[in-house]
Amino acid sequence: MTPIAPSPFVISETAFALCLVLLLLAPLAIAGVALINTGLGRSRSAAQSLLGSLAIVAVAAIAFALVGATITGNPLGAPGSTGHTFYLAGKPWNWLGAGPLLLRGFGSAPFQSQLALLFEFLAVALAALIPWGSGTDRWRLTAGCAAAAVLAATVFPLLAHWVWTGGWLSQLGVNFSLGAGFLDPGGAATVHVLGGLSALAVVWIAGSRRGKFPKEGFSTAMPGHNAVYVLFGCLLALVGWLAFNVAGAILWLHAPLAALPVTALNTLLSASGALAATFAVTRIRFGKPDASLCANGWLSGLVASSAAAGIVSPGPALFIGFVAGIVTPLLVELLELAVSIDDPSGAISVHAVAGLWGLLAVGIFASQSGQLLAQLVGIAALLGVILPLVYLLFWLLNRVVPFRVDPDGERIGMDLHELGGGAYPEFVIHRDESYR
Amino acid sequence: MKYAGLLVMPAGFFLTVAALVLFPDPALRAAFVLCGLAVEALGLAVAVCGHMEARGESRP
Fold this sequence. Notes:
The structure holds two protein chains of two kinds. Chain A contains 15 helices and two strands. Chain A is an all-alpha fold. The N and C termini of chain A lie far apart (about 55 Å). Residues about 1-5 of chain A have low confidence and may be disordered. In chain A, strands 1-2 form a two-stranded antiparallel ribbon. In chain A, helix 4 (about 110-135) runs antiparallel to helix 8 (about 225-250). The longest helix of chain A has 30 residues, at about 370-400. In chain A, a hairpin with a 2-residue loop joins strand 1 and strand 2 (about 90-95). Helices cover about 65% and strands about 5% of the residues of chain A. By secondary structure, chain B is mainly α. Helix content of chain B is about 90%, strand content about 0%. Chain B contains two helices and no strands. The interface of A and B includes residues 88, 373, 379, 380 and 436 of A.
């Protein structure tokens, strides 16, 4: 398949209706990730985890409406300002969007602008939710909401403008003859890599759960409390991802209707390849397939498909998922055992690394010359600008709103400490032997 | 050490941008973009090492 370079386009009524229906299904990706995060945490933090997910989605939407949408700017071809540009070596560098304040004129905007904004609202909610799972069992609800507001108001809009709404990364093809510019139709960079790198920043700042890494011996196993939530969350996520990837192909690649079934098929194949690979890897490593790692593998295939599903053909899509499924369980293990990173949801491996792999794979399998270099420049921007920026913002935020709960709160559980009641009041919560 | 690593990473990004601006030749441009990514990888490795050192010191 040949991606179509970003250019002004007018959406047909059929495509508008289809895209709107897809965007109404996209929140299932958010629901799936929320369930996965909750299931991978401990039972005494389950209610706080799900309430936190709701609160983060709400805060991200409000922050994006108040500030973020203005910074993201209008899609290419839409009326209004194209953003802030400076010139370097005779080339324009569009680095900041300039959309209308407080969504003014949204109702009368062209169809494609309305859909693009709705897509961005859902994308920012998902991006803000990803780090919540990594901070589970010790990240305070208030701090999680504050971090979501910071992401939705500053970093996500900046990146979304660079990638989707005519920013310098999307214009690499026009200005430097690098393929069709940086391609990320489903949000692998803007949602998943951003979310995964934010998760890394949270883990670095909040630290690990108490007792996770004892002074002597290996790290303590703290398995998720509900594998059914996790696996059902994976099924819900598939529907959401299909919606995100197909809607993204319409909006950001201007794909014709005939190309959309392949995009959906690629999404499914990528996830399937990843699950098969993770199933095999964990079967070989542990003698039996591991449910939570298989869920991580499935999700990593979906994440990798976010970049590639609208661009590659089915064979490469399966291969991309397969590679993601091999790397993810090994990386989850490596980060915990060798690097002492306590990431309960595996968001760093699943969202950041699989997202980066998907973006790289687009460059490898795309037909245009220079596409690989465009993807590498985008990856360099993610690692060289977005990670340090997110870390700096979260580090400053941690001074104002401390991320980590006090030791007593961690001992009794986030549900009792922050909400005053547990998720499973009729169940006996056993003493945690890992707490020393 | 973690902060040093995180400070090195933008340097890699600026190397990548400089490659785009300074080198019209595709091979040279690609080489410098890869160098920029290598610098970023080095910065990330230093930051991770800093995290591991800090974890070792604070273990209960």
